[in-house]
Amino acid sequence: MPKRIAAFGEVMMRLQVPGYDLLSQSNILNYTFSGTGVNVVSALARFGHTGHLVSRLPGNSLGDAAAAYLRKLGIASSLIHRGGNYLGMYFLENGFGVRPSRVTYSNRLESSFNTAPAGEYDYDDIAAQIDAVHFCGISLAMNDGVRHHIKSLARAVKQRGGSVIFDCNYRPSLWGEDGYVKAKPHYEEMLHLSDIVIMNEKDAIYTLGMFSEKTDRTEQLMELIPAVAKQYQVQVIAGTHRSINNDNTHTLRGFLFKNECFSFSEQLTFSVYDRIGAGDAFASGIIHGEMEGFPPEKTVRFAAAASMLAHTVSGDTPMASEMEIVRAMTESVGDIER
Amino acid sequence: MPKRIAAFGEVMMRLQVPGYDLLSQSNILNYTFSGTGVNVVSALARFGHTGHLVSRLPGNSLGDAAAAYLRKLGIASSLIHRGGNYLGMYFLENGFGVRPSRVTYSNRLESSFNTAPAGEYDYDDIAAQIDAVHFCGISLAMNDGVRHHIKSLARAVKQRGGSVIFDCNYRPSLWGEDGYVKAKPHYEEMLHLSDIVIMNEKDAIYTLGMFSEKTDRTEQLMELIPAVAKQYQVQVIAGTHRSINNDNTHTLRGFLFKNECFSFSEQLTFSVYDRIGAGDAFASGIIHGEMEGFPPEKTVRFAAAASMLAHTVSGDTPMASEMEIVRAMTESVGDIER
Amino acid sequence: MPKRIAAFGEVMMRLQVPGYDLLSQSNILNYTFSGTGVNVVSALARFGHTGHLVSRLPGNSLGDAAAAYLRKLGIASSLIHRGGNYLGMYFLENGFGVRPSRVTYSNRLESSFNTAPAGEYDYDDIAAQIDAVHFCGISLAMNDGVRHHIKSLARAVKQRGGSVIFDCNYRPSLWGEDGYVKAKPHYEEMLHLSDIVIMNEKDAIYTLGMFSEKTDRTEQLMELIPAVAKQYQVQVIAGTHRSINNDNTHTLRGFLFKNECFSFSEQLTFSVYDRIGAGDAFASGIIHGEMEGFPPEKTVRFAAAASMLAHTVSGDTPMASEMEIVRAMTESVGDIER
Amino acid sequence: MPKRIAAFGEVMMRLQVPGYDLLSQSNILNYTFSGTGVNVVSALARFGHTGHLVSRLPGNSLGDAAAAYLRKLGIASSLIHRGGNYLGMYFLENGFGVRPSRVTYSNRLESSFNTAPAGEYDYDDIAAQIDAVHFCGISLAMNDGVRHHIKSLARAVKQRGGSVIFDCNYRPSLWGEDGYVKAKPHYEEMLHLSDIVIMNEKDAIYTLGMFSEKTDRTEQLMELIPAVAKQYQVQVIAGTHRSINNDNTHTLRGFLFKNECFSFSEQLTFSVYDRIGAGDAFASGIIHGEMEGFPPEKTVRFAAAASMLAHTVSGDTPMASEMEIVRAMTESVGDIER
Amino acid sequence: MPKRIAAFGEVMMRLQVPGYDLLSQSNILNYTFSGTGVNVVSALARFGHTGHLVSRLPGNSLGDAAAAYLRKLGIASSLIHRGGNYLGMYFLENGFGVRPSRVTYSNRLESSFNTAPAGEYDYDDIAAQIDAVHFCGISLAMNDGVRHHIKSLARAVKQRGGSVIFDCNYRPSLWGEDGYVKAKPHYEEMLHLSDIVIMNEKDAIYTLGMFSEKTDRTEQLMELIPAVAKQYQVQVIAGTHRSINNDNTHTLRGFLFKNECFSFSEQLTFSVYDRIGAGDAFASGIIHGEMEGFPPEKTVRFAAAASMLAHTVSGDTPMASEMEIVRAMTESVGDIER
Amino acid sequence: MPKRIAAFGEVMMRLQVPGYDLLSQSNILNYTFSGTGVNVVSALARFGHTGHLVSRLPGNSLGDAAAAYLRKLGIASSLIHRGGNYLGMYFLENGFGVRPSRVTYSNRLESSFNTAPAGEYDYDDIAAQIDAVHFCGISLAMNDGVRHHIKSLARAVKQRGGSVIFDCNYRPSLWGEDGYVKAKPHYEEMLHLSDIVIMNEKDAIYTLGMFSEKTDRTEQLMELIPAVAKQYQVQVIAGTHRSINNDNTHTLRGFLFKNECFSFSEQLTFSVYDRIGAGDAFASGIIHGEMEGFPPEKTVRFAAAASMLAHTVSGDTPMASEMEIVRAMTESVGDIER
């Protein structure tokens, strides 16, 4: 049965140099609007749920363009506020082969989202309208105001019996020096509030400061994730292991830990067109599986296939339907569909 | 010596989303005009023959644009009629890696070509102007009117001593339910009229309802194609085996059966840029070889190389000259030509 | 107070050659999705109402793209059905100066909208969700099936106490030979059902077969419109007189007849960028004024200014906010806004 | 009755900066292929004649692209030779308002056309295939080799009873210092050979060195053109007076002198989108009128309207059909055609 | 004799929606880099002077792109610092006819330029390398840090015997509430330091709080500008009166007050393509005239013509050479230059 | 310590068909300006040196655009002359997979650079401003005038104690028939003048006519390069061995011979986006290493990595900073940088 799911998060304007030019070579940018929350609830809307975004956009042309774009993605807009003056932006220069892609941010701390005052959102009213809410570690890194909104809304949803989903998503550049130390208490608070968490063993080691004597990633994972689940009382923990190959392909394996059991997807290897947002596609697959009551093995395979497909479309936001993902789970590469 | 070769077939407008965007992500389309007949006679014109198209285009802006495009491709336009109101169209969204390409058709049954009335074409007059005529299974699937034009023109050409070429090209979506049953009598009639046929063992099994106990494709091919040639009195049967690899490459091998002998090309593996129309490039290579009196081994190798190169250019229509194909038959990948 | 307003109408794909090239000169098209109903309710949504579209889109990539585009325009999509196979399309070649623009249609009669079967729409359920419904003469020209949907929905809305709005919008090419004769009974039926009608004296003369001895357009208008209002019991009749000048400008004056009185806007003269859809902007202004209870003079001036601004934006669909229209009603041309 | 008309002239590659950017601001060029002869016979082909081009293109990618483009324009290509290495090119930066357009040439003297050796063309064979031939003063300015081809072909056509058409088209930058002195004998030779000449009083004064005491352009015209016709035995002389207005419009009036009578078109004023090639459209109108036996007044009005329309399409080459020109002669500016 | 002239000012990234689309309609932006100082010294470099920019750009991809663009404009880059994190940006949606253009800013207060710390620039070292320095009221509006840099550099240049140029350029949105009151002391300080000032009577009235009983703009000008020159000891004051017409043209007249005399340019009326930066072109013309010792009437006519031409090129930055400006001062609109 | 390095060479306009279309399929070109000298000194400027170009550009729009582009690349322009009429151009059609890229030249022999008269450059004055000068075999192939400039400048630099760098870069199509015989004396003269030479064993065998009994490339290299160094007294000889693989990757290994020792880079294999100019990136790396006094092993590894990265950016000109090259020397492929 379709659920009502909200994400709380910032809308970013993505300004991408077309093709493989650098910013100093080109004079054209393609723009779209995205963000972890945008990507997750847009994918969930595509799967048949109602996907709300709780966010704040400026009351100007850029805000209008962002709002129109979110509607186009199928996102319900009744919980989006207008106010403040600026939109967070990032510039993307596509890498090629051995040359990595490059992302340059504008000053997002001044954005409408990151300057939303206390009292901007009515947590309880929002909680009453939704079955689950999604947060991520990127918003958590912003400032105390945003962190207050996050935790208050999480508590309100929890109190109303809704589910709380948290994607750890630690970004070193956002937390600055001694970032792990600064981040830890906030991450711990979020984990305590969460029912579903997206993370892997690296988050456990670096952000939560846990320790493993193992050296193999999978062994570390299988030691630490159950410990996290137990310590913070998290029902479901899921995540991926990714490796980047020399030939423009990535290799990905998803895992899901639930009821003291691990489920794993196959190890998938595939050509990559646009890597940004592929983690959000994985998260959306896990949430969909959990909301629909899939068996864990199906959930993790669905999420991994959703993530794989998200690497093959342009933009941050997953565009695959449930049917396309199921087909990618089962069939080999096909000829033209006509 | 150059020949006068006509194709009877529909002109389609191809509307392609640039790059790898979906129709719901983009707002731009690139358009060209193509069709099996267009592709085949354009290639033959490039090889030095006179390539006619027998078709019907609407008398409006779209028809003007299509006619101009066909002239640009080098197609002789004196047998193209103007009338009716619509042009068949298809939209193409490019796939990437594990995500397949997607084709969406407009209502081609209402097109000028598919609504050409009885009496539209003067079969005998056309036959008098050409040495050979090409038909394909796509047109054959349209409606009784088109089928009548096809068979009448085939008979007229045959009567005048010209060659009839038929590309089986069975498209399940066009014949609908019980398609093979509906199609079989028409295919059989065409085979009886044809001198050169493009098909492989799958057409024999599914469309003609033949049976083989073999399980290997090549063994099936070597059993069934001679049987088809004998039963329908076809002088030349040629076709390809294609497999699609995980790394954005295809593998292709051509065969040609003539005088009770099989000739095969090398098995070619190559990166694919635009797969549509590559089968028509193969057909054009077979026709050119036969018209020029190449030995069968050269014909099939030429056709396979023509098909391989057609995968590397944009659009449905092959663009390689005879010299470029011959070079691709003999040399390895080269550096820039300057 | 914002109202819930639906339009019943077809969604068309607009495929426009960029700049001033002809279809036979270019190879690129820009596409958007529009339609009289789309334009009207999108504008009303921008004015703060809930704008529904009652329509039917194909369940394929084109339908997905159209649905996404309508959401982007702010149109509520819960009354949009998916089914059938085709989308109506039109190609637009921009004119320049003395060279007129040129529109070429695909076969819209086969579209999902125009082939919606009896029973497709639950008229009463729709009527229960809206305060007013908009129809236009273009849909009325399609076929008996569409006409049945139109009249049934109009009656259902009327029965529930909602308002019926009808834009006469007679297109000679759609009704064919003896078009006025064929159209008249349907137009009369619609007028009887309508509360607000968009038309001018030409519709009265040609479609309704009325007669005036006057030769001046304004005199004809002032004679015939009151007669129409009386005969068909229409509360509000509004429309425009347009003239096209040599220097790429148009001149427009709006009128509104209500309570036996005419109100007129100023005669506006302005440079034209994209003329298509400007009539729908006028209609949306009239509807908004009526729904909000503006005095008639304000309504007609608002509608004329809305129409004027719609000539200055690209695409069929008006993009101006209420604030921008009010400013255009009162201020002279301004310098950059920064 | 349609005629077979050839033009002898160079094919130029036009490389245009899109929009109103300068070459030092942009990084994109749009390219087409044109030339006086190209423009004239393409227009004549559009009017139903067979339009040949006698020219020479390089045997490389640029030559292939040019040849394809000429076919697209409807030009018969059997008299186009391939050889030499280069194609003439010009770069176009569009002006805006008070800023004039700017044309920068590549070295066209090294082009395949301008280096065609003696013996390249079989004058008599060409003359046998055509009813009329067109030359222009631009080719005449190139070098002795080209001038030899021009005069030899003109004589061959004349001898076979065909018509010779000459457009004076004097370009000061091509003849260099003392240009008029250098040019005069060649112009006189061409006038003696010609049946139809495009020129005005300025050509008479500057190139032919004639003298008038009048100061008004029209008076000069009416004195000198009859003198030219008489002295050089020319049957038809036609041309235009153009003035450029401040508001992005031009004013144009055509004249035609035949049988000792002047005919004039209306004075036309219209917005200009692309001025290049508009003179060739006028010439094509004159030739068409003469070939079809129009009365002189109709011919000059048709030619002026053809020229006016040519200012409204992109590219050098006229794109209007006879029907569109006739409509422009008779109707005022129209609304969208749909 | 060419001079060494520096501007102190911010570099802005201009992100423009191509054509006439709104941000909510398009998905493409063209970007360039500009700013009052950029525009002025780029124009001066084009006139043969050495044009320095004193500014600060971020040490990332955006900063690299900006620096490359400034070099392309001909600006000497040795006084440009790299540091800080952000670049000021503005988004431009082009207006059309009655619809005004719209500018939306990012948070420029966080830009590298506006956060340059005390001690960033070595005022005396800069002053030693230049003959004149240009400031504008936009920078003056930023913050105390920038104002300190401005005044310190102005003093250093003055002390070294260089000229100080100040463009009043008051932008209400930048000074906020009670802006004139806040701005006045800073403007007065700048006027005291300046040799050349760009302003008109409105600046005198609003920013300097002066009063005139006249109602006509020209009369106000002729009363107040001499008073300003006297009170603040300014040698040259120049500026423009602009009016915006209904037909997409502007009317402009320049004035220059020097040695107690006014000089005026003709009143120029012209079509406008890109209005932004046209004031900077005027300023560059005034500075060039003063540096070269033109008579005042020539200077003001040159500046007005430079400004007029700047309305006809894309981008903020003037692109005309001295020769092109002189030609625009003397000739009427011309045909294509070839 | 940064050096002042000049290259003497022609600036070419590169006109590239976007994507993978042929010239006969597209109507758009992207243009940039490049050349061996441009590429080398632009890269050196990026590494912190002052990079001069000694060249000649036409005094028209194309020359202005080229000059602006060179400034953008960071090239010092004070030694660039303006004069002559034409710019060398080449058209590039991108290959894909088995279809090779295709380059078509305009007539560069008429370019401003190749027609610079004797006395155009003041060799001694240039030599006084630089520490090193770079020449290449492409310029050497042009004509006697260019060869005279090359040798005179080389001698002037040598006399002033500067270094002479020569890239052999033999292009068969430029020297024509018996090219090696014609070229040899000029190459020998350049080698005698040079301190650093870019070449490999093929240049020794074909251009210098040396002989080796070895068949393995590396063995030939190790036999012939020391012989060249000895015979012509060259301090440093460096070059690469490249092989082109079937899967769109190239394999490259650099060598450097100095002080009678060979140093080799690793054998690098990488995906290729734009192959043109990658040899110039290698040369720039060798020059930078020598100028900075890197140990030979570091120099050759730096040069090979610089060349590898140059294959991954669009355009002929390397865009990588020293930091990016060093990272590519040490790290494996990375994820997005953000």
Automatic annotation (TrEMBL), chains A, B, C, D, E, F:
UniProt cross-references to InterPro entries, sorted A to Z: Carb_kinase_PfkB-like (IPR052700), PfkB_dom (IPR011611), Ribokinase-like (IPR029056)
SUPFAM superfamilies: Ribokinase-like (SSF53613)
Keyword check for Transferase: yes
Domain Carbohydrate kinase PfkB stretches: 4-318
GO MF annotations in UniProt: kinase activity
Kinase keyword on record: yes
One Pfam family matching this protein: PfkB
Keywords (A to Z) from UniProt: Kinase, Transferase
Family from the record: Belongs to the carbohydrate kinase PfkB family.
Protein's UniProt name: 2-dehydro-3-deoxygluconokinase
Organism: Paenibacillus uliginis N3/975
